[in-house]
Amino acid sequence: MKVLLDGWGGSVGRGYCGGMVGDSMTTATELPKNIGRLQSAVKTVMQPIFNVLWDVDVYGASNLPDEGAAILCANHTSVMDSFFVPATLPRRITYVGKAEYLDDWKTRWLFPQLGMIPIDRSGGDAAKAALDKAAEILESGEFFGIYPEGTRSRDGRLHKGHTGPARLAIRTGAPIIPVGLKGIREIQPPDAGRPKLFESAEVYFGEPIHPDRYPDSGDQRLRFRQMIDEVMFEIRKATGQEYVHEYANKKKAEEPVKVEMDQPEARSSADVLRPVALTI
Fold it and tell me: What is the pLDDT at residue 131?
């Protein structure tokens, strides 16, 4: 894994990432129970293997704070995204993941231990509880990761962002760091059973977007929307994806059924009102 030490653009110098250091740089007190307990150990074991299997260039590592909270918002086109981002970080990160993962015995215990907070995407009180837990993590000085598109982009395009990350940023004061991921979709496309090995990928960490840049003007919804739109713009700038101003999880409306009908012969109003003789 190569870390490019310049920020967002071209490289000034190159160096090999010296392995994951777990959570040794964090200032967190304690994560919520059972969340992320195994992440440091797994990263320590898997990091050398990861470096052999894929060639990953990391840009903008200097934009990551050495301590304190931050919300990492990445584009999402592959199931492997949730492995590549933690593998390139020098600190622990906790993610939101769909609650359906807990329906499978293979992931019910493992994913929370690796740092996933389950969220019920149907909304309501369950979603609010997950975001409250995310706020706890940020207030304790940790990294928190969330995909603003809400789900994987099946078509590879960048979709409209949900405002949840902006709400968290304004609530906690934590900055948002846009994260652009390139090449990971090619490593494991949607519906592929396993990742391709020895492929290349790029991870871009953008400059932090601080919530105080968006003061309260009385319209909170507009405030959240403007902030997350800037995040999506920065992600698009890094990845070059086509942007679609609709949610990735929006169901397409069914095509209307076109029914061919014989059109009646046009008549004037005088014809319509003219008495018609009945034949008996």
Answer: 81
Torsion of CA 56, 23, 110, 58, to 10 degrees: -10
Query: What is the model's pLDDT at position 17?
Result: 39
158 has which bridge partners? 243
274 domain-assigned: no
Q: Is there a domain that residue 276 lies in?
A: no
Per-residue tokens: 5: 């030490």
* Listed residue (82, 73, 70) closest to 112, CA to CA: 82
Looking up residue 200, the CATH number of its domain turns out to be 3.40.1130.10
pLDDT for res 272 = 35
- Whose tokens are 């994260």? That residue is 179
Number of domains in the chain: 1
Residue 126, pLDDT score: 63
First and final C-alpha spacing in the chain: 94
Matching residue, tokens 């071209």: 10
Residue whose entry in the numeric block shows the structure tokens 């960048």: 158
Residue 96: what are its φ and ψ, rounded to 5°? -90, 135
- Output the pTM of the full model: 0.77
Question: What is residue 225's DSSP assignment?
Answer: H
For 119-161, write each residue's pLDDT tens digit: 766 666 766 777 888 899 999 999 999 999 989 999 999 999 9
Smallest CA-to-CA distance from 84 within 113, 54, 104, 108 is with 54
Rounded Cα distance, 128 and 152, in Å: 21
Residue 73 to residues 59, 109, 146: CA-CA distances in angstroms? 15, 25, 5
Evaluate if residue 274 carries a pLDDT over 60.
no
Q: Output the CA torsion 24→26→32→35 (10° steps).
A: -50
